[in-house]
Amino acid sequence: MFPELVAEGLSDLSTRTIREAVETRVDRSRTAGAASGANPTSVQINGFSVLLCAAPDNATFANILSADFMSCLEVPDGADAMDIAGRLAELIDQGKWFTSVSCRRIFKTAFVAQLCGRIAAEDSLGDGECDLMRTAIDEALSNAVIHGNLELQSAHTITIADFADFYAQVDERIAMSEYGNRRITVQTWRDETGRWVSIADEGSGYEPRQDRRDPMAVAHPDRTHERRRNGRGMEIIESLSREFHTDLGGRCISMRFGDA
User: Fold this and answer.
1) Is 91 helix (H, G, I), strand (E, B) or coil?
2) What is the pTM of this model?
């Protein structure tokens, strides 16, 4: 089952446990370097398990989404222990399963497919429902990485050359530490209305258009690419989820699936 915490604030003991686990992870990274990613540190807080890992990859995501379901926080080499401990304490206190890793780590992995597979098993979803949820989450994650953390706009036209140039820009930005190290934080939980998935980035945010069926769609049908670029694919997410909303100045999107 997806673990849940009662978010009533963390005790001094919990805070100390978090700090000690993060310091152990950071010290291990300093002495072992990048290879330390293969030897992660785990922390248990009020029955909530979190994997602290220097270099999460597909194998890491498969591990945390296994029967022993764990949250995951990337602790990169050279990380500041106090900063990481603060992030971890804040996420644990929210009481929701989470994965918080750099966009260069999560992008172009099988994370979304793995997550949706686990949710489908938990919620007894059929293949069709799972596919629709996966498409919406894929779109939201791509938006968070490309438009949010990498601060790139979609290609203005749709030629093969345009796409090639655009994805070359993606690869260039994601290799730059000031962009590629920005985090993507994914959370999931259930409430009385259904299954929720949220995705947050560390970009500059944006102003979501209040009416996605605005008059420009009728007045300027030749500018479809501009509507899609400015809407950040929200039309896709809107059509595939029961509901969604944005927070944090457009840096976080929460989507509901399943129960009506």
Assistant:
1) helix
2) 0.83
How many alpha carbons lie under 13 Å from residue 64 in its C-beta half-sphere? Answer: 29
Cβ-contact 125, 117 below 8 angstroms: no
Domains of the chain, earliest start first: 1-95 (no CATH), 102-260 (3.30.565.10)
Residue recorded with tokens 């989404």:
65
SS3 217: helix
Closest CA to 153 of 238, 251, 230: 230
The SS3 of residue 189 is strand
* Confidence check: pLDDT of 241 > 80: yes
In angstroms, what is the C-alpha Rg of the chain? 19
CA 247 to chain centre: 14
Q: Which of 8-22, 37-51, 223-237 has the highest mean pLDDT?
A: 37-51
Instruction: Give the three-class secondary structure for 183.
Output: strand
The C-alpha atoms of residue 106 and residue 190 are separated, in whole angstroms, by 23
> Residue 17: which of 47, 53, 44, 52 has the closest Cα?
44
